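re the bet — no i am not wrong, look at it urself. input seq straight from the record:
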Amino acid sequence: MADYTDDQRYSTIEKRRDAREMVNAMITERTSVKPMHELIDLFVRYEVPHAPILGVNEALTQAHAQARNMLVDVEHQTLGTIPIVNRPFKFPGRDMSSPDAPPVLGQHTDTILSEIVGLDADQIAKLKALKIVG
């Protein structure tokens, strides 16, 4: 690959912006053949702002995510103990409970129909008998 440091087409930020597609192609050509750790070393050495793009599993194993307790185990009604993402917001001096496991189908039907909709037990039983709710 050619050295573009003296190329006048890229000598100013405005020229590099106007040639964005070519500049991006050049960057991709050089970075796609290097392992991530080498790129990070280069970026650190030359003080280039950077951060890897992580998948969910990778992000949750980062030291920062672990320090913030971002992955917690909860008890699921049918699956047993499962890991879920914890609440992202933390308030200093306040303990926050972990979120509940996702409900199974129909787990909260009776509560919603009685407490929110205002139905009594007989009305709920009729809806279930007609297979309107589960």
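see?? The longest helix spans residues 20-31. told u. also The chain has a mean pLDDT of 92. so pay up
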